[in-house]
Amino acid sequence: MDRWARWKTIGMNLALLTVIWNPSTAQGEAFRIMDQGAAASGQGTAFAAQADDPSALHYNPAGMTQLEGVQFYGGTLLVGGHYDYTSPGGTKFRGNLDGSIAFPPPINFYLTANLAMLDIGFLKNLTLGIGVNSPYGLIVNYPTNVPFSALDTMATLPMLDIKPTAAYRFNDYLSIGAGLDIYTFASFAGEGAAQVNAFIPPGTNLELRTKDTAIGYNLGMLVTPWRTDGKPRLNLAFVYRSQTTLNLHGQFLVNGAVSADARTDLTLPQTFTGAVALWPVRDDKREWKVEVDVDYADWHSFKQLNVRLSNGGVLPEPRNWSGVFVVHVGTEYKWLQPALLPEWEVAARFGYIRSQTPVPDNTFEPAVPDAHYNSFSVGLGFLCKGQGRFLGFLKCQTPLLGPVGIKGIGIDLAYKNQLYESRTITNNLRPVVNGTWDTVLHAGIMNLRVNF
């Protein structure tokens, strides 16, 4: 069998792996990542209408106008779980996230600055921010003896989203925000890589390594029709994220040797979010918020992942995904200066997500073992102000240089699970995928907050 025949026989099934990457592992529908901040994650990521910490830069950029001074928010996810496959004959196989916990863990970073401190004309209503996270991703690692090992066994694609963002507050009732999504690859993390254990000849190692940089954008609006004592009691939010196409390019390798240059296009969907947050209780002692967010992810644009080789060959990879809705419900109860911790704010959070899958049965793939799922989350938040001490020794209000100093230090913790419905595939384009798929994922999320 000549080289091209081998590519055509085996390589056609490799391209699907380019949609998977590490280090972002806790996914929403398909491979979209919901968890970009622990306070939001504890509430089932129902946060677009609250948006009152620096992760607003991701969830709703208009919410940044609610943040005073300069604020930092950064954290990580520790993700575990398993992917179970049962063949039509009843044989069971288990995949994981390349270990009990995905490593390196995905991170998020946000920095915001409210320019009201400058007291200069229209700049007083402007807030600027920069963020880095990974809003799409997954990592799947299967044993090499699975029936579909010629399709995929492992894949990574360490893509980052760099987010320069701005928001403007028109008045007490309306703020808007906008930002760029610069999807790129970091040199320290490498480029996208896919790997399979091929059948012909047995043990052949096939790899597809690709990278690109592409730019999208996001828009947000926050409307507050009801306030008491200057604090929101009802917020309405709308967020739009644009469709973006990565023109991935790189190399196709066989047993570590370059066999051809390769290109493929990965289209990330446009998404729409509508949200409402209500505070039934909000006074100087307690705050209770209830929020519902609804996302629509327009995966109709994800039609194929055809790989184009430098010798003129094309490896067809149909997808034909569908648009889907995701519903988020969350609540937060906050104690302001409780008797036991008078210099602290303490928050308890709970959340639920119901997500549909955009992946049809006939193009279902082991690399994205997706199904409808339910997710439950809990979280705690602690924000230290005044004369309190963080971790018992670090003063929470500390002068640094002139008028600049630390005004508060906080930590947010969350746990969530994603319980996927069992999915039986019987009519896949690749018969080796037919069988029953069961997925369970868990994530622990932690973020540190510093207000200046």
Helices and strands in order:
Elements: H1 3-10, H2 38-41, H3 56-59, E1 70-86, E2 92-95, E3 107-114, E4 126-133, E5 154-156, E6 159-169, E7 174-185, E8 192-198, E9 204-211, E10 214-228, E11 231-241, E12 244-254, E13 257-268, E14 270-282, E15 286-298, E16 307-309, E17 314-315, E18 324-336, E19 344-355, E20 373-385, E21 389-390, E22 394-395, E23 398-401, E24 404-406, E25 408-420, E26 423-425, E27 435-451
Question: Summarize this, please?
Answer:
With 452 residues, the protein is mainly beta. It is 4% helix and 53% strand.
Describe the protein.
The chain has 452 residues and is mostly beta strands. The protein has a single domain, classed as Porin (Beta Barrel), CATH 2.40.160. The chain is built from three helices and 27 strands. The strands form four sheets. A 14-stranded antiparallel barrel has the order 1-3-4-6-7-10-11-14-15-18-19-20-25-27. Strands 5-8-9-12-13-16-17 form a seven-stranded antiparallel β-sheet, with no helix packed on it. A hairpin with a 2-residue loop joins strand 23 (398-401) and strand 24 (404-406). The protein is globular.
* Secondary-structure element series: HHHEEEEEEEEEEEEEEEEEEEEEEEEEEE
Number of domains: 1
Oligomer: single chain
CATH-defined topology:
Porin
**Radius of gyration over alpha carbons?**
23 Å
Defining traits:
single chain, 452 residues, mainly beta, Porin, 14-stranded antiparallel barrel, seven-stranded antiparallel beta sheet, disordered N terminus
